[in-house]
């Protein structure tokens, strides 16, 4: 699935959130959307699914988003929100089965095929062993992976992810990125909103760096994530060094103040007697 | 959902159906004139096939059974089912565990309609019951008013709907109280209606309520899977391809029809619509495809039993059935709640 966005504007009442955003997303590509809090990342995602009505052009496979029937769009585009609202009392499997909704007719109920699809969605998000657990028994990270499984059960051609690794431990962060890579290899288009710059540079083919609702910098990770850009957009002093294996940029916090530039823990701060 | 539990669920529903049958027979048998279950079915067969199975019964049994006992039990069952399904539907639609069938000002509207009819002794042409018709109209009118008041553009936000329902409900309750106070000699009759009763049940009442209830209940049953998806929140459901405003509107229409039809033939009976869906949810989980039919069965059983208790506990006077539902329902529900908390280790 291909996405074209041109000159997108959106405002909550008088407060402008998106000011003329343009980009494209192609099948088999991972696009990262980065930017500080309040730069309009989540709003952008909700505009792309038509949940919010924005001004400008949003076209999925050359069709404006508001001319695509909801049901048809739901079969092709899935969104995983930052804080998914998963209903209490339902088991994980029941939640993931909800992802089959767009593929079922009103009278239908889920068949063996749907169950197989959900089984694989649970497997790919390593939540299979949680299948019979109730939602309220799951941890924040488990819920986040379950929300991803729900989206995968839709069998989408494009996946919009809002901070999919925010509540995850290191192991599951890497596992989630791995399964996203596998999906992309099978032709999925992925748009990723992220706060962790290092995770973003490790998976994204292309990055949009947003600032105050506009794209400030865009390009491959190595061009976008630089010390100067991060200082300008985030107002943070950082060091950017190439990753020893991949060569992608890695962002390190700059040490300053009384510890000097030494990493803490290696040398104990000197104390005056 | 349900795929892996399908057989188990059908078995549970079948069990519920059996209990419903037993409850119906027992409720019919018990009363100021007890009619043994054996006589009930003989009388019924005799009614269907004249000259059927011979039996030596008092002459009064047949009219008591056919004109008093059976319509009353049937009406209690139908109203119980309707209220329980409506409660479950509203709870899902508004994603609010406190939602009950009288939420959208329906109770207030029905009360004003019924008390007006009773206070002025209104009669309608064509032999229609004025109380019933005005209660029905009042209920629908109030729900419509709440919807229109709460509507912003093309959608009606849940919180606004609930608040508008509460506000209009209190206004209408005030109007009812006023009518009640001004109509001294008829206050007793009005109060009896407000508390809910099946004392005046008849086959006509069952017949006038069912044409609204059956299609509404079927529509809700068909939408049960979408109600499940709606539990993901408005935007979650939207991203699963559901036209949420349209779905919510039609769910509201169907549910309000169910409630209005129930209220117009029985008055205001509390607790059934709130407690039964919760009890079913606590026992068997929140899947609406099972929750709705099971609530219907449980609601019918519960209200039949409550009405039987209402008319037999005290030989001198009948209790309002709403009092009985509150008395038995609330403690049972609290017990379930405690059990469940223990189970979850909360």
Question: Can you describe this structure in just a few lines?
Answer:
The complex is a heterodimer of chains A (273) and B (346). Chain A has 273 residues and is an alpha/beta fold.
What overall geometry of chain A do the principal axes of the alpha carbons give? Answer: globular
Q: Total number of β-strand segments of chain A?
A: 12
Biggest interface between chains: A-B, 39 and 27 residues
- Report the biggest beta sheet of chain B as strand number plus sense, adding barrel if it closes: none
Count up the domains of chain A: 1
Rg of chain B (C-alpha, Å): 21 Å
Give the strand tally of chain B: 0
Q: What is the annotated CATH architecture of chain A? A: 3-Layer(aba) Sandwich
| Number of helical regions of chain B | 14
User: Low-confidence parts of chain A, pLDDT < 50 over ≥5 residues?
Assistant: 264-273
Overall spatial form of chain B:
globular
Instruction: Please indicate the count of domains of chain B.
Output: 1
CATH class category label of chain A: Alpha Beta
How does this structure look, described?
The complex is a heterodimer of chains A (273) and B (346). Chain A has 9 helices and 12 strands. By secondary structure, chain A is of the alpha/beta class. Chain A has one domain (3-222): Rossmann fold (3-Layer(aba) Sandwich), CATH 3.40.50.300. Chain A has a 6-stranded mixed sheet, with helices on both faces. A 4-stranded antiparallel sheet of chain A has the order 2-1-4-5, covered by helices on one side. A two-stranded antiparallel ribbon of chain A has the order 11-12. In chain A, a hairpin with a 2-residue loop joins strand 4 and strand 5. In chain A, helix 4 crosses helix 5. Chain A is globular and about 55 Å long. Chain B has helices spanning 6-29, 37-48, 61-93, 106-119, 130-150, 158-182, 187-195, 203-222, 224-230, 234-238, 244-266, 272-284, 288-312, 321-344. Chain B is globular, with a radius of gyration of 21 Å. The model of chain B has no long low-confidence stretch (mean pLDDT 88). The interface between A and B is medium-sized, with 39 and 27 residues.
């Amino acid at each position: 699935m291909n996405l074209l966005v041109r000159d997108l504007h959106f405002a909550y009442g008088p407060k402008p959130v998106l000011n003329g955003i343009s980009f494209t997303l192609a099948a088999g590509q991972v696009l990262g959307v980065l930017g500080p809090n309040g730069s309009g990342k989540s709003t952008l995602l909700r505009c792309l699914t038509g949940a919010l009505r924005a001004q400008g052009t949003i076209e999925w496979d050359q069709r404006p988003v508001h001319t695509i029937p909801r049901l048809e769009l739901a079969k092709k585009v899935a969104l995983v929100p930052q804080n998914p609202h998963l209903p209490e009392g339902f088991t994980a499997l029941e939640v993931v089965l909800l992802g089959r909704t767009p593929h079922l007719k009103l009278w239908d109920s889920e068949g063996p095929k749907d169950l197989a699809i959900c089984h694989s969605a649970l497997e790919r998000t390593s939540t299979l062993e949680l299948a019979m657990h109730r939602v309220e028994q799951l941890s924040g990270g488990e819920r986040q992976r379950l929300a991803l499984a729900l989206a995968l059960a839709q069998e989408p051609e494009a996946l919009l992810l809002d901070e999919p690794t925010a509540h995850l431990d290191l192991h599951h962060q890497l596992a989630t990125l791995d399964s996203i890579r596998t999906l992309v290899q099978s032709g999925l288009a992925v748009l990723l909103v992220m706060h962790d710059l290092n995770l973003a540079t490790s998976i994204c083919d292309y990055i949009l760096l947003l600032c105050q609702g506009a794209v400030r910098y865009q390009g491959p990770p190595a061009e976008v994530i630089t010390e100067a850009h991060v200082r300008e957009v985030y107002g943070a002093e950082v060091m950017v060094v190439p990753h020893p294996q991949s060569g992608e940029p890695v962002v390190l916090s700059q040490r300053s103040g009384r510890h000097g530039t030494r990493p803490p823990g290696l040398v104990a701060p000197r104390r005056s007697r | 959902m349900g795929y892996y539990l399908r057989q188990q669920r059908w078995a549970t529903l079948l069990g519920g159906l059996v209990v419903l049958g037993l409850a119906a027979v027992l409720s019919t048998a018990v009363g100021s004139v007890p009619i043994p279950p054996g006589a009930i079915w003989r009388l019924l067969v005799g009614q269907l096939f004249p000259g059927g199975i011979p039996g030596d019964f008092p002459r009064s049994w047949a009219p008591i059974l056919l004109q008093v006992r059976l319509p009353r039990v049937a009406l209690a069952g139908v109203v119980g089912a309707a209220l329980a399904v409506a409660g479950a539907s509203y709870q899902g639609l508004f994603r609010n565990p406190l939602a009950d069938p009288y939420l959208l000002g329906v109770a207030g509207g029905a009360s004003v309609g019924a008390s007006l009819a009773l206070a002025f002794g209104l009669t309608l042409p064509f032999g229609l019951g004025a109380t019933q018709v005005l209660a029905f109209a009042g209920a629908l009118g109030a729900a419509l008013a709440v919807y229109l008041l709460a509507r912003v553009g093309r959608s009606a936000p849940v919180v606004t709907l609930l608040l508008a329902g509460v506000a209009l409900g209190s206004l209408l309750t005030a109007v009812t109280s006023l009518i009640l106070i001004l109509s001294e000699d008829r206050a007793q009759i009005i109060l009896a209606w407000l508390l809910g009763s099946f004392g005046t049940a008849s086959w006509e009442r069952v017949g006038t309520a069912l044409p609204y209830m059956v299609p509404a209940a079927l529509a809700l049953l068909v939408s049960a899977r979408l109600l499940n998806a709606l539990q993901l929140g408005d935007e979650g459901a939207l991203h699963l391809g559901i036209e949420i405003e349209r779905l919510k509107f039609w769910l509201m229409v169907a549910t309000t029809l169910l409630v209005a039809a129930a209220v117009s033939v029985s008055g205001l009976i509390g607790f059934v619509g709130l407690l039964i869906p919760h009890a079913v949810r606590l026992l068997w989980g929140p899947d609406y495809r099972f929750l709705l039919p099971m609530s219907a069965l449980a609601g019918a059983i519960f209200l039949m039993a409550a009405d039987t208790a209402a008319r037999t506990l005290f030989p001198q006077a009948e209790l309002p059935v709403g009092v009985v539902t509150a008395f038995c329902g609330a403690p049972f529900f609290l017990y379930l709640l405690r059990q469940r908390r223990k189970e979850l280790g909360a």
